[in-house]
Hints:
The structure holds 2 protein chains of 2 kinds. Helices cover 79% and strands 0% of the residues of chain A. Chain A contains 13 helices and no strands. In chain A, helix 5 packs antiparallel against helix 10, helix 8 crosses helix 10 and helix 9 (211-218) crosses helix 10. The relative contact order of chain A is 0.14. The mean pLDDT of chain B is 86. The radius of gyration of chain B is 22 Å and the shape is elongated. By secondary structure, chain B is mainly α. The longest helix of chain B has 37 residues, at 174-210.
Amino acid sequence: MTRLILTxxxxxxxxLLAASLIIFFVVxxxxxxxxxxxxxxxxxxxxxxxxxQQLGLNGDPLTRYFEWVLGMLRGDFGTSYTYRVPVxxxxxxxxxxxxxxxxxxxxxxxxxxxxxxxxxxxxxxxxADYGIMGLTQLGIAVPNFWFxxxxxxxxxxxxxxxxxxxxxxxxxxxxxxxxSLTLPAIALAVTQxxxxxxxxxxxxxxxxxxxxxxxxxxxxxSERTTLIRHALRNALIPVxxxxxxxxxxxxxxxxxIENVFFLPGLGRLIFQxxxxxxxxxxxxxxxxxxxxxxxxxxxxxxxxxxxxxxxxTR
Amino acid sequence: MKHLxxxxxxxxxxxxxxxxxxxxxxxxTPHPVEVLDIxxxxxxxxxxxxxxxxxxxxxxxxxxxxxxxxxxxxxIVAVGIGLLVGTPFGLAAAWGHHxxxxxxxxxxxxxxxxxxxxxxxxxxxxxxxPSAFNAILAIGIFNIPVFARVTRGAALSLWQQDYILAAxxxxxxxxxxxxEHILPNLVNLLLVQATIQFSLGIxxxxxxxxxGLGVQPPTPSWGxxxxxxxxxIYTHPRLAILPGLAIVTMVLGLNLLxxxxxxxxxxxxxxxx
Lengths: 314, 273
Protein backbone atom coordinates (compact mmCIF):
# COMPACT_ATOMS: atom_id res chain seq x y z
CA MET A 1 0.00 0.00 0.00
CA THR A 2 2.78 2.43 0.96
CA ARG A 3 4.65 1.56 -2.23
CA LEU A 4 1.55 2.14 -4.30
CA ILE A 5 0.98 5.54 -2.74
CA LEU A 6 4.63 6.46 -3.27
CA THR A 7 4.47 5.49 -6.95
CA UNK A 8 1.26 7.47 -7.35
CA UNK A 9 2.85 10.47 -5.61
CA UNK A 10 5.80 10.31 -7.96
CA UNK A 11 3.55 10.23 -11.02
CA UNK A 12 1.52 13.09 -9.51
CA UNK A 13 4.67 15.22 -9.29
CA UNK A 14 5.75 14.29 -12.83
CA UNK A 15 2.29 15.15 -14.20
CA LEU A 16 2.26 18.50 -12.43
CA LEU A 17 5.72 19.36 -13.72
CA ALA A 18 4.81 18.38 -17.27
CA ALA A 19 1.57 20.36 -17.09
CA SER A 20 3.38 23.43 -15.77
CA LEU A 21 5.94 23.17 -18.59
CA ILE A 22 3.16 23.06 -21.21
CA ILE A 23 1.37 26.04 -19.68
CA PHE A 24 4.58 28.04 -19.32
CA PHE A 25 5.54 27.26 -22.92
CA VAL A 26 2.18 28.34 -24.36
CA VAL A 27 1.84 31.50 -22.29
CA UNK A 28 5.38 32.81 -21.98
CA UNK A 29 7.33 31.37 -24.93
CA UNK A 30 4.90 31.28 -27.86
CA UNK A 31 3.94 35.00 -27.74
CA UNK A 32 7.64 35.90 -28.01
CA UNK A 33 7.90 38.72 -25.51
CA UNK A 34 5.01 38.45 -23.00
CA UNK A 35 5.46 42.02 -21.78
CA UNK A 36 5.19 43.44 -25.31
CA UNK A 37 2.20 41.16 -25.92
CA UNK A 38 0.38 42.44 -22.83
CA UNK A 39 0.99 46.09 -23.68
CA UNK A 40 -0.15 45.79 -27.27
CA UNK A 41 1.16 47.24 -30.52
CA UNK A 42 1.62 50.87 -29.52
CA UNK A 43 3.83 50.34 -26.49
CA UNK A 44 7.16 52.14 -26.40
CA UNK A 45 10.32 50.10 -25.77
CA UNK A 46 10.80 51.88 -22.42
CA UNK A 47 7.37 50.84 -21.12
CA UNK A 48 8.01 47.28 -22.25
CA UNK A 49 11.32 47.15 -20.41
CA UNK A 50 9.69 48.65 -17.33
CA UNK A 51 6.92 46.06 -17.33
CA UNK A 52 9.42 43.28 -17.94
CA GLN A 53 11.29 44.32 -14.84
CA GLN A 54 8.20 44.84 -12.79
CA LEU A 55 6.76 41.40 -13.58
CA GLY A 56 10.09 39.61 -13.63
CA LEU A 57 9.78 38.82 -17.33
CA ASN A 58 13.36 39.73 -18.20
CA GLY A 59 15.90 36.97 -17.93
CA ASP A 60 16.18 33.71 -19.76
CA PRO A 61 13.14 31.40 -20.02
CA LEU A 62 14.62 28.59 -17.95
CA THR A 63 15.28 30.83 -14.95
CA ARG A 64 11.82 32.34 -15.34
CA TYR A 65 10.23 28.91 -15.39
CA PHE A 66 11.98 27.83 -12.20
CA GLU A 67 11.16 31.11 -10.52
CA TRP A 68 7.52 30.67 -11.49
CA VAL A 69 7.33 27.10 -10.16
CA LEU A 70 9.26 27.86 -6.96
CA GLY A 71 7.11 30.94 -6.45
CA MET A 72 3.93 28.87 -6.73
CA LEU A 73 5.29 26.41 -4.17
CA ARG A 74 5.63 29.35 -1.78
CA GLY A 75 2.14 30.57 -2.68
CA ASP A 76 3.45 33.42 -4.83
CA PHE A 77 1.70 33.43 -8.20
CA GLY A 78 3.10 36.69 -9.46
CA THR A 79 1.41 40.06 -9.76
CA SER A 80 -1.55 40.78 -12.01
CA TYR A 81 -0.74 43.34 -14.64
CA THR A 82 -4.23 44.84 -14.74
CA TYR A 83 -5.24 44.63 -11.08
CA ARG A 84 -1.76 45.40 -9.68
CA VAL A 85 -2.32 42.96 -6.84
CA PRO A 86 -0.86 39.51 -6.17
CA VAL A 87 -2.58 36.91 -8.33
CA UNK A 88 -2.82 34.57 -5.33
CA UNK A 89 -5.07 37.10 -3.58
CA UNK A 90 -7.33 37.42 -6.62
CA UNK A 91 -7.56 33.68 -7.04
CA UNK A 92 -8.31 32.95 -3.39
CA UNK A 93 -11.06 35.53 -3.54
CA UNK A 94 -12.62 33.92 -6.61
CA UNK A 95 -12.14 30.36 -5.39
CA UNK A 96 -14.60 31.19 -2.61
CA UNK A 97 -17.25 31.12 -5.32
CA UNK A 98 -16.03 28.57 -7.86
CA UNK A 99 -14.93 25.81 -5.51
CA UNK A 100 -18.11 25.73 -3.40
CA UNK A 101 -20.10 25.85 -6.64
CA UNK A 102 -18.29 22.83 -8.10
CA UNK A 103 -18.53 20.90 -4.81
CA UNK A 104 -22.22 21.80 -4.39
CA UNK A 105 -22.83 20.51 -7.91
CA UNK A 106 -20.83 17.36 -7.14
CA UNK A 107 -22.97 16.64 -4.05
CA UNK A 108 -26.16 17.25 -6.06
CA UNK A 109 -24.84 14.96 -8.80
CA UNK A 110 -24.36 12.11 -6.33
CA UNK A 111 -27.65 12.79 -4.55
CA UNK A 112 -29.56 12.62 -7.83
CA UNK A 113 -27.62 9.87 -9.55
CA UNK A 114 -27.44 7.27 -6.76
CA UNK A 115 -31.15 6.78 -6.09
CA UNK A 116 -32.14 7.27 -9.73
CA UNK A 117 -29.56 4.78 -10.99
CA UNK A 118 -30.50 2.29 -8.28
CA UNK A 119 -34.20 2.51 -9.05
CA UNK A 120 -33.56 2.06 -12.76
CA UNK A 121 -31.43 -1.02 -12.05
CA UNK A 122 -33.98 -2.56 -9.69
CA UNK A 123 -36.82 -1.84 -12.13
CA UNK A 124 -34.77 -2.97 -15.11
CA UNK A 125 -36.82 -3.48 -18.25
CA UNK A 126 -39.95 -1.88 -16.79
CA UNK A 127 -41.62 1.31 -17.93
CA ALA A 128 -40.05 3.30 -15.09
CA ASP A 129 -36.58 2.17 -16.23
CA TYR A 130 -37.26 3.30 -19.79
CA GLY A 131 -38.59 6.60 -18.51
CA ILE A 132 -35.52 7.21 -16.36
CA MET A 133 -33.14 6.22 -19.15
CA GLY A 134 -34.96 8.52 -21.57
CA LEU A 135 -34.67 11.41 -19.14
CA THR A 136 -30.95 10.80 -18.64
CA GLN A 137 -30.46 10.81 -22.43
CA LEU A 138 -32.07 14.23 -22.43
CA GLY A 139 -29.95 15.34 -19.48
CA ILE A 140 -26.76 14.42 -21.32
CA ALA A 141 -27.82 16.32 -24.43
CA VAL A 142 -28.60 19.58 -22.62
CA PRO A 143 -25.83 22.22 -22.64
CA ASN A 144 -25.58 23.24 -19.00
CA PHE A 145 -25.34 26.99 -19.67
CA TRP A 146 -28.57 26.83 -21.67
CA PHE A 147 -30.27 24.79 -18.97
CA UNK A 148 -29.12 27.49 -16.56
CA UNK A 149 -30.91 30.13 -18.65
CA UNK A 150 -34.08 28.04 -18.63
CA UNK A 151 -33.83 27.70 -14.84
CA UNK A 152 -33.50 31.48 -14.60
CA UNK A 153 -36.59 31.87 -16.78
CA UNK A 154 -38.64 29.50 -14.65
CA UNK A 155 -37.43 30.01 -11.09
CA UNK A 156 -36.18 33.58 -11.13
CA UNK A 157 -38.31 35.36 -13.75
CA UNK A 158 -41.42 33.20 -13.54
CA UNK A 159 -41.74 32.05 -9.95
CA UNK A 160 -39.40 34.55 -8.34
CA UNK A 161 -38.00 31.95 -5.89
CA UNK A 162 -34.38 32.78 -6.61
CA UNK A 163 -32.52 35.83 -7.79
CA UNK A 164 -31.50 35.69 -11.45
CA UNK A 165 -27.82 36.15 -10.68
CA UNK A 166 -25.17 37.70 -8.51
CA UNK A 167 -23.60 36.42 -5.35
CA UNK A 168 -24.48 37.67 -1.87
CA UNK A 169 -21.16 36.54 -0.39
CA UNK A 170 -20.53 34.23 2.53
CA UNK A 171 -20.48 36.93 5.20
CA UNK A 172 -24.28 37.20 4.95
CA UNK A 173 -24.57 33.64 6.16
CA UNK A 174 -23.91 30.26 4.57
CA UNK A 175 -27.54 29.75 3.66
CA UNK A 176 -27.81 32.95 1.69
CA UNK A 177 -24.55 32.12 -0.11
CA UNK A 178 -25.78 28.63 -0.91
CA UNK A 179 -29.06 30.03 -2.15
CA SER A 180 -27.34 32.14 -4.77
CA LEU A 181 -25.37 29.07 -5.87
CA THR A 182 -28.38 26.74 -6.01
CA LEU A 183 -29.59 27.37 -9.56
CA PRO A 184 -26.05 27.30 -10.99
CA ALA A 185 -25.30 24.08 -9.11
CA ILE A 186 -28.48 22.42 -10.38
CA ALA A 187 -27.67 23.45 -13.95
CA LEU A 188 -24.18 22.00 -13.59
CA ALA A 189 -25.32 18.82 -11.89
CA VAL A 190 -27.98 17.77 -14.40
CA THR A 191 -25.59 16.54 -17.11
CA GLN A 192 -23.17 14.83 -14.75
CA UNK A 193 -26.00 13.27 -12.73
CA UNK A 194 -27.47 11.83 -15.94
CA UNK A 195 -24.13 10.28 -16.87
CA UNK A 196 -23.54 8.97 -13.36
CA UNK A 197 -27.06 7.52 -13.04
CA UNK A 198 -26.52 5.52 -16.23
CA UNK A 199 -23.20 4.21 -14.94
CA UNK A 200 -24.72 3.41 -11.56
CA UNK A 201 -27.51 1.49 -13.26
CA UNK A 202 -25.30 -0.63 -15.49
CA UNK A 203 -22.78 -1.28 -12.72
CA UNK A 204 -25.53 -2.39 -10.34
CA UNK A 205 -27.19 -4.58 -12.97
CA UNK A 206 -23.87 -6.30 -13.56
CA UNK A 207 -23.27 -6.82 -9.86
CA UNK A 208 -26.80 -8.15 -9.32
CA UNK A 209 -26.05 -10.90 -11.82
CA UNK A 210 -23.06 -12.21 -9.81
CA UNK A 211 -23.03 -15.56 -8.04
CA UNK A 212 -22.53 -14.09 -4.59
CA UNK A 213 -25.77 -12.16 -4.96
CA UNK A 214 -27.56 -15.41 -5.70
CA UNK A 215 -25.90 -16.89 -2.62
CA UNK A 216 -27.01 -13.94 -0.53
CA UNK A 217 -30.58 -14.37 -1.74
CA UNK A 218 -30.43 -18.13 -1.30
CA UNK A 219 -29.41 -17.84 2.32
CA UNK A 220 -32.59 -15.92 2.90
CA UNK A 221 -31.49 -12.29 3.02
CA SER A 222 -34.18 -9.81 2.13
CA GLU A 223 -33.95 -8.13 -1.27
CA ARG A 224 -33.21 -4.87 0.52
CA THR A 225 -30.28 -6.23 2.53
CA THR A 226 -28.89 -8.01 -0.51
CA LEU A 227 -29.04 -4.84 -2.49
CA ILE A 228 -27.59 -2.50 0.10
CA ARG A 229 -25.05 -4.70 1.84
CA HIS A 230 -23.79 -6.86 -1.01
CA ALA A 231 -24.58 -5.35 -4.38
CA LEU A 232 -24.25 -1.64 -3.77
CA ARG A 233 -20.77 -1.72 -2.29
CA ASN A 234 -19.28 -3.51 -5.25
CA ALA A 235 -21.29 -1.54 -7.76
CA LEU A 236 -19.91 1.69 -6.32
CA ILE A 237 -16.30 1.02 -7.38
CA PRO A 238 -16.62 2.14 -11.03
CA VAL A 239 -19.01 4.88 -9.93
CA UNK A 240 -16.37 6.40 -7.66
CA UNK A 241 -13.84 6.64 -10.50
CA UNK A 242 -16.32 8.47 -12.66
CA UNK A 243 -17.16 10.90 -9.84
CA UNK A 244 -13.46 11.80 -9.70
CA UNK A 245 -13.39 12.49 -13.42
CA UNK A 246 -16.61 14.47 -13.19
CA UNK A 247 -15.12 16.93 -10.76
CA UNK A 248 -12.91 18.32 -13.52
CA UNK A 249 -15.91 18.75 -15.81
CA UNK A 250 -17.83 20.45 -13.02
CA UNK A 251 -14.97 22.85 -12.38
CA UNK A 252 -14.68 23.69 -16.08
CA UNK A 253 -18.47 23.89 -16.33
CA UNK A 254 -18.55 26.24 -13.34
CA UNK A 255 -16.39 28.68 -15.29
CA UNK A 256 -19.02 28.87 -18.04
CA ILE A 257 -22.04 28.82 -15.73
CA GLU A 258 -20.65 31.75 -13.72
CA ASN A 259 -21.21 33.81 -16.86
CA VAL A 260 -24.93 33.06 -16.89
CA PHE A 261 -25.42 34.08 -13.25
CA PHE A 262 -22.87 36.90 -13.13
CA LEU A 263 -20.99 35.16 -10.34
CA PRO A 264 -17.62 36.67 -9.36
CA GLY A 265 -15.68 33.40 -9.68
CA LEU A 266 -12.61 32.10 -11.45
CA GLY A 267 -14.46 32.18 -14.75
CA ARG A 268 -14.97 35.92 -14.63
CA LEU A 269 -11.35 36.42 -13.60
CA ILE A 270 -9.98 34.32 -16.44
CA PHE A 271 -12.17 35.83 -19.16
CA GLN A 272 -11.25 39.32 -18.04
CA UNK A 273 -7.65 38.16 -18.03
CA UNK A 274 -7.98 37.05 -21.64
CA UNK A 275 -9.60 40.25 -22.91
CA UNK A 276 -7.13 42.43 -21.02
CA UNK A 277 -4.21 40.26 -22.10
CA UNK A 278 -3.24 39.69 -18.50
CA UNK A 279 -1.12 36.63 -19.20
CA UNK A 280 0.06 36.24 -15.60
CA UNK A 281 -3.53 35.81 -14.40
CA UNK A 282 -4.39 33.37 -17.21
CA UNK A 283 -1.25 31.34 -16.59
CA UNK A 284 -1.86 30.99 -12.87
CA UNK A 285 -5.57 30.28 -13.05
CA UNK A 286 -5.06 27.62 -15.72
CA UNK A 287 -2.33 26.04 -13.60
CA UNK A 288 -4.64 25.98 -10.59
CA UNK A 289 -7.45 24.38 -12.61
CA UNK A 290 -5.14 21.72 -14.00
CA UNK A 291 -3.66 21.17 -10.55
CA UNK A 292 -7.16 20.60 -9.15
CA UNK A 293 -7.98 18.07 -11.86
CA UNK A 294 -4.74 16.12 -11.45
CA UNK A 295 -4.99 16.18 -7.66
CA UNK A 296 -8.58 14.92 -7.59
CA UNK A 297 -7.75 12.06 -9.91
CA UNK A 298 -4.77 11.19 -7.74
CA UNK A 299 -6.98 11.13 -4.65
CA UNK A 300 -9.53 8.93 -6.45
CA UNK A 301 -6.75 6.52 -7.44
CA UNK A 302 -5.54 6.26 -3.86
CA UNK A 303 -9.06 5.98 -2.42
CA UNK A 304 -9.76 3.27 -4.97
CA UNK A 305 -6.83 1.22 -3.71
CA UNK A 306 -7.92 1.79 -0.13
CA UNK A 307 -11.47 0.55 -0.83
CA UNK A 308 -10.62 -2.38 -3.06
CA UNK A 309 -7.95 -4.70 -1.64
CA UNK A 310 -7.62 -6.46 -5.01
CA UNK A 311 -6.04 -3.35 -6.51
CA UNK A 312 -3.38 -3.09 -3.82
CA THR A 313 -1.45 -6.17 -4.85
CA ARG A 314 -1.10 -5.08 -8.46
CA MET B 1 -33.16 -8.13 -43.31
CA LYS B 2 -32.05 -7.31 -39.80
CA HIS B 3 -34.48 -5.69 -37.46
CA LEU B 4 -33.36 -2.12 -36.84
CA UNK B 5 -33.86 -0.88 -33.28
CA UNK B 6 -36.10 2.15 -32.91
CA UNK B 7 -33.42 4.09 -31.03
CA UNK B 8 -31.10 3.77 -34.02
CA UNK B 9 -33.83 4.92 -36.43
CA UNK B 10 -34.83 7.96 -34.38
CA UNK B 11 -31.17 8.86 -33.83
CA UNK B 12 -30.36 8.51 -37.52
CA UNK B 13 -33.39 10.57 -38.55
CA UNK B 14 -32.47 13.42 -36.20
CA UNK B 15 -28.79 13.19 -37.11
CA UNK B 16 -29.57 13.44 -40.81
CA UNK B 17 -32.06 16.28 -40.47
CA UNK B 18 -29.44 18.76 -39.26
CA UNK B 19 -26.82 18.20 -41.97
CA UNK B 20 -29.66 18.49 -44.50
CA UNK B 21 -30.68 21.84 -42.99
CA UNK B 22 -27.04 22.93 -43.07
CA UNK B 23 -26.68 21.86 -46.71
CA UNK B 24 -29.83 23.73 -47.71
CA UNK B 25 -28.58 26.84 -45.92
CA UNK B 26 -25.55 26.94 -48.26
CA UNK B 27 -27.94 27.45 -51.18
CA UNK B 28 -30.97 29.07 -49.62
CA THR B 29 -32.20 30.54 -46.36
CA PRO B 30 -35.60 32.17 -45.81
CA HIS B 31 -33.79 35.51 -45.33
CA PRO B 32 -30.13 36.49 -45.72
CA VAL B 33 -28.25 36.40 -42.40
CA GLU B 34 -25.66 39.06 -43.26
CA VAL B 35 -28.23 41.81 -43.66
CA LEU B 36 -29.17 43.76 -40.55
CA ASP B 37 -32.65 45.23 -40.64
CA ILE B 38 -33.18 47.31 -37.51
CA UNK B 39 -36.75 48.17 -38.50
CA UNK B 40 -37.58 44.46 -38.30
CA UNK B 41 -35.86 43.86 -34.96
CA UNK B 42 -37.31 41.52 -32.33
CA UNK B 43 -40.36 40.61 -34.39
CA UNK B 44 -42.56 37.85 -33.02
CA UNK B 45 -43.01 34.72 -35.11
CA UNK B 46 -45.27 35.52 -38.05
CA UNK B 47 -45.84 35.00 -41.73
CA UNK B 48 -42.62 36.42 -43.14
CA UNK B 49 -40.43 35.28 -40.20
CA UNK B 50 -41.61 31.88 -39.03
CA UNK B 51 -39.54 31.99 -35.82
CA UNK B 52 -39.33 35.77 -35.58
CA UNK B 53 -36.22 37.96 -35.66
CA UNK B 54 -33.37 38.82 -33.29
CA UNK B 55 -32.19 42.18 -31.93
CA UNK B 56 -30.54 43.03 -35.27
CA UNK B 57 -33.62 42.08 -37.27
CA UNK B 58 -32.05 38.90 -38.58
CA UNK B 59 -34.41 36.00 -39.30
CA UNK B 60 -34.08 33.45 -36.48
CA UNK B 61 -34.78 30.40 -38.65
CA UNK B 62 -32.10 31.45 -41.14
CA UNK B 63 -29.64 32.06 -38.28
CA UNK B 64 -30.36 28.62 -36.85
CA UNK B 65 -29.85 27.00 -40.27
CA UNK B 66 -26.51 28.71 -40.86
CA UNK B 67 -25.56 28.02 -37.23
CA UNK B 68 -25.94 24.33 -38.01
CA UNK B 69 -23.12 24.70 -40.55
CA UNK B 70 -20.87 26.12 -37.87
CA UNK B 71 -21.68 23.43 -35.32
CA UNK B 72 -21.23 20.56 -37.74
CA UNK B 73 -18.13 22.05 -39.33
CA UNK B 74 -16.32 22.60 -36.04
CA UNK B 75 -17.32 19.21 -34.64
CA ILE B 76 -16.36 17.27 -37.80
CA VAL B 77 -12.88 18.74 -38.03
CA ALA B 78 -12.34 18.30 -34.29
CA VAL B 79 -13.34 14.63 -34.50
CA GLY B 80 -11.10 14.29 -37.58
CA ILE B 81 -8.11 15.61 -35.62
CA GLY B 82 -8.79 13.15 -32.81
CA LEU B 83 -9.17 10.23 -35.21
CA LEU B 84 -6.19 11.03 -37.43
CA VAL B 85 -3.76 11.71 -34.59
CA GLY B 86 -5.15 9.59 -31.77
CA THR B 87 -5.74 6.34 -33.66
CA PRO B 88 -2.14 5.93 -34.94
CA PHE B 89 -0.85 6.65 -31.42
CA GLY B 90 -3.20 4.04 -30.01
CA LEU B 91 -2.16 1.48 -32.64
CA ALA B 92 1.53 2.11 -31.97
CA ALA B 93 1.06 1.91 -28.20
CA ALA B 94 -0.77 -1.42 -28.51
CA TRP B 95 1.98 -2.87 -30.67
CA GLY B 96 4.70 -1.73 -28.28
CA HIS B 97 2.70 -2.78 -25.21
CA HIS B 98 4.69 -2.40 -21.95
CA UNK B 99 7.53 -0.70 -23.82
CA UNK B 100 8.80 2.74 -22.86
CA UNK B 101 6.99 4.09 -25.94
CA UNK B 102 3.65 2.75 -24.73
CA UNK B 103 4.32 4.23 -21.30
CA UNK B 104 5.15 7.66 -22.75
CA UNK B 105 2.03 7.67 -24.92
CA UNK B 106 -0.24 6.63 -22.08
CA UNK B 107 1.26 9.16 -19.64
CA UNK B 108 0.96 11.83 -22.31
CA UNK B 109 -2.65 10.78 -22.64
CA UNK B 110 -3.28 11.18 -18.93
CA UNK B 111 -1.70 14.59 -19.11
CA UNK B 112 -3.93 15.84 -21.91
CA UNK B 113 -6.92 14.48 -20.00
CA UNK B 114 -6.06 16.94 -17.23
CA UNK B 115 -6.74 19.78 -19.70
CA UNK B 116 -10.49 19.97 -20.43
CA UNK B 117 -11.18 21.46 -23.88
CA UNK B 118 -12.30 24.67 -22.18
CA UNK B 119 -8.89 25.05 -20.52
CA UNK B 120 -7.08 24.34 -23.80
CA UNK B 121 -9.26 26.95 -25.46
CA UNK B 122 -8.48 29.45 -22.70
CA UNK B 123 -4.74 28.91 -23.18
CA UNK B 124 -4.86 29.17 -26.97
CA UNK B 125 -7.19 32.17 -26.95
CA UNK B 126 -5.09 34.05 -24.40
CA UNK B 127 -2.18 33.96 -26.82
CA UNK B 128 -3.76 33.94 -30.29
CA UNK B 129 -7.11 35.62 -29.69
CA PRO B 130 -10.53 34.01 -30.13
CA SER B 131 -11.52 32.34 -33.41
CA ALA B 132 -13.41 29.37 -34.76
CA PHE B 133 -10.07 27.80 -35.65
CA ASN B 134 -8.95 27.91 -32.01
CA ALA B 135 -12.19 26.27 -30.92
CA ILE B 136 -11.61 23.47 -33.42
CA LEU B 137 -8.03 23.05 -32.26
CA ALA B 138 -9.00 22.97 -28.58
CA ILE B 139 -11.74 20.38 -29.07
CA GLY B 140 -9.53 18.42 -31.48
CA ILE B 141 -6.62 18.24 -29.03
CA PHE B 142 -9.02 17.08 -26.34
CA ASN B 143 -10.22 14.30 -28.70
CA ILE B 144 -6.74 12.89 -29.37
CA PRO B 145 -6.29 10.96 -26.09
CA VAL B 146 -9.88 9.75 -26.28
CA PHE B 147 -9.27 8.02 -29.60
CA ALA B 148 -5.77 6.88 -28.61
CA ARG B 149 -7.12 5.20 -25.50
CA VAL B 150 -10.05 3.49 -27.20
CA THR B 151 -7.82 2.27 -30.05
CA ARG B 152 -5.10 1.00 -27.72
CA GLY B 153 -7.54 -0.88 -25.50
CA ALA B 154 -9.23 -2.71 -28.35
CA ALA B 155 -6.02 -3.27 -30.33
CA LEU B 156 -4.35 -4.87 -27.30
CA SER B 157 -6.88 -7.68 -27.22
CA LEU B 158 -6.71 -8.10 -30.99
CA TRP B 159 -2.94 -8.62 -30.81
CA GLN B 160 -3.63 -11.78 -28.75
CA GLN B 161 -5.65 -13.34 -31.57
CA ASP B 162 -4.43 -16.35 -33.51
CA TYR B 163 -4.80 -14.71 -36.91
CA ILE B 164 -2.39 -11.99 -35.86
CA LEU B 165 0.10 -14.67 -34.90
CA ALA B 166 -0.47 -16.21 -38.33
CA ALA B 167 0.21 -12.86 -39.98
CA UNK B 168 3.42 -12.49 -37.98
CA UNK B 169 4.54 -15.97 -38.97
CA UNK B 170 3.81 -15.01 -42.57
CA UNK B 171 6.40 -12.30 -42.12
CA UNK B 172 4.25 -9.20 -41.90
CA UNK B 173 5.71 -6.30 -39.96
CA UNK B 174 3.92 -4.50 -37.13
CA UNK B 175 2.89 -1.56 -39.31
CA UNK B 176 1.29 -3.80 -41.92
CA UNK B 177 -0.42 -5.91 -39.27
CA UNK B 178 -1.75 -2.80 -37.56
CA UNK B 179 -3.09 -1.37 -40.81
CA GLU B 180 -4.32 -4.55 -42.50
CA HIS B 181 -5.56 -6.64 -39.59
CA ILE B 182 -6.03 -4.51 -36.50
CA LEU B 183 -7.47 -1.29 -37.93
CA PRO B 184 -10.24 -2.89 -40.02
CA ASN B 185 -11.47 -4.65 -36.89
CA LEU B 186 -11.65 -1.35 -35.03
CA VAL B 187 -13.82 0.44 -37.58
CA ASN B 188 -17.08 -0.22 -35.72
CA LEU B 189 -15.66 0.87 -32.42
CA LEU B 190 -14.13 4.02 -33.85
CA LEU B 191 -17.38 4.84 -35.65
CA VAL B 192 -19.31 4.67 -32.40
CA GLN B 193 -16.68 6.73 -30.56
CA ALA B 194 -16.64 9.28 -33.38
CA THR B 195 -20.41 9.71 -33.05
CA ILE B 196 -20.07 10.30 -29.31
CA GLN B 197 -17.18 12.76 -29.74
CA PHE B 198 -19.12 14.50 -32.49
CA SER B 199 -22.01 15.20 -30.15
CA LEU B 200 -19.60 16.29 -27.40
CA GLY B 201 -17.92 18.54 -29.96
CA ILE B 202 -21.21 20.25 -30.72
CA UNK B 203 -21.78 20.91 -27.01
CA UNK B 204 -18.20 22.14 -26.59
CA UNK B 205 -18.41 24.49 -29.58
CA UNK B 206 -21.65 25.96 -28.25
CA UNK B 207 -20.06 26.46 -24.82
CA UNK B 208 -16.89 28.03 -26.19
CA UNK B 209 -18.77 30.36 -28.54
CA UNK B 210 -21.13 31.27 -25.70
CA UNK B 211 -18.24 32.55 -23.53
CA GLY B 212 -16.64 34.24 -26.54
CA LEU B 213 -13.73 31.84 -27.04
CA GLY B 214 -15.07 30.31 -30.23
CA VAL B 215 -16.82 31.46 -33.38
CA GLN B 216 -16.80 35.25 -33.66
CA PRO B 217 -19.59 37.52 -34.94
CA PRO B 218 -20.98 37.96 -37.52
CA THR B 219 -20.71 34.20 -38.22
CA PRO B 220 -23.94 32.71 -36.84
CA SER B 221 -23.39 30.06 -34.18
CA TRP B 222 -25.84 28.56 -31.71
CA GLY B 223 -23.57 29.37 -28.79
CA UNK B 224 -23.22 33.02 -29.84
CA UNK B 225 -26.97 33.29 -30.37
CA UNK B 226 -27.45 32.17 -26.78
CA UNK B 227 -24.91 34.69 -25.55
CA UNK B 228 -26.73 37.47 -27.43
CA UNK B 229 -30.08 36.28 -26.12
CA UNK B 230 -29.00 36.39 -22.51
CA UNK B 231 -29.70 40.07 -21.96
CA UNK B 232 -33.05 39.75 -23.76
CA ILE B 233 -34.20 36.70 -21.83
CA TYR B 234 -36.77 38.63 -19.78
CA THR B 235 -38.47 40.25 -22.73
CA HIS B 236 -37.83 37.76 -25.53
CA PRO B 237 -37.26 34.29 -24.03
CA ARG B 238 -37.86 32.80 -27.50
CA LEU B 239 -34.39 33.95 -28.57
CA ALA B 240 -32.79 31.93 -25.77
CA ILE B 241 -35.05 28.90 -25.98
CA LEU B 242 -34.86 28.09 -29.70
CA PRO B 243 -31.06 27.81 -30.24
CA GLY B 244 -30.86 25.66 -27.10
CA LEU B 245 -33.58 23.36 -28.42
CA ALA B 246 -31.63 23.01 -31.66
CA ILE B 247 -28.51 21.94 -29.71
CA VAL B 248 -30.45 19.51 -27.51
CA THR B 249 -32.20 17.90 -30.47
CA MET B 250 -29.05 17.44 -32.51
CA VAL B 251 -26.98 16.11 -29.60
CA LEU B 252 -29.81 13.82 -28.50
CA GLY B 253 -30.07 12.46 -32.05
CA LEU B 254 -26.34 11.81 -32.23
CA ASN B 255 -26.27 10.10 -28.82
CA LEU B 256 -29.19 7.86 -29.77
CA LEU B 257 -27.43 7.08 -33.04
CA UNK B 258 -24.18 6.26 -31.22
CA UNK B 259 -25.88 4.00 -28.66
CA UNK B 260 -28.00 2.37 -31.35
CA UNK B 261 -24.97 1.78 -33.56
CA UNK B 262 -23.01 0.29 -30.68
CA UNK B 263 -25.78 -2.19 -29.86
CA UNK B 264 -26.41 -2.95 -33.50
CA UNK B 265 -22.79 -3.46 -34.50
CA UNK B 266 -21.95 -5.54 -31.44
CA UNK B 267 -22.89 -9.10 -32.42
CA UNK B 268 -23.03 -10.27 -28.81
CA UNK B 269 -25.74 -7.79 -27.91
CA UNK B 270 -27.58 -8.36 -31.19
CA UNK B 271 -27.97 -12.09 -30.56
CA UNK B 272 -29.27 -11.50 -27.09
CA UNK B 273 -32.20 -9.48 -28.35
